Amino acid sequence: MSFKSSKTGKHLLLTGLVVSLGLWATPATSQTTATDSQVTAFVEALRQAAPPQSNNDGMYSAWQVLPGIIPDWTKRCTGQQLTAAQFEADATAARNTVTCIARRELNNQMQARGNNQAAAVRGAACWWMTGKYDGCNSGFQAQYVQKVVNVYQQQVSGSSQR
Prior knowledge:
This protein is mostly helical. Helices cover 69% and strands 0% of the residues. The chain contains seven helices and no strands. It has helices at 2-25, 36-49, 70-78, 84-89, 91-112, 117-130, 139-160. Helix 2 (36-49) packs across helix 5 (91-112), helix 2 crosses helix 7 (139-160) and helix 3 packs across helix 5. The longest helix is centred in the N-terminal third of the chain and has 24 residues, at 2-25. The radius of gyration is 22 Å and the shape is globular. Mean pLDDT is 83; it is low at 8-31.
């Protein structure tokens, strides 16, 4: 009898552990992530809002990415670590990398801002420029964020009309 109880107890314990892990790994239904069209619109907004490229500004690609973060971002997002020059020369890798990071940050902000799309875009745009989600309330930073928001809204409304 003791063996049967012990076996049943172990089975119940194992079942409980598996169920608990399954619930922990399953995303909560209240979490909202950005749709592909929202991410695409955000990536395009970041591109259009980027300062004009110049050969000596130290930034790379149409999205004006700092060279120091390119190796990490490309490794994380494409599986291949690229130099800034490789990133600049490979428009597909640049777009894929920017899309990957933009998706991550837009999702973070959608969740942090209670699925308020406008606030999420503002926060993610501020992060893109400064590395911080808040504080882009004046000067060039505010102008940049507003431009991202405006282009994003145009992109989203244009894609919904297609």
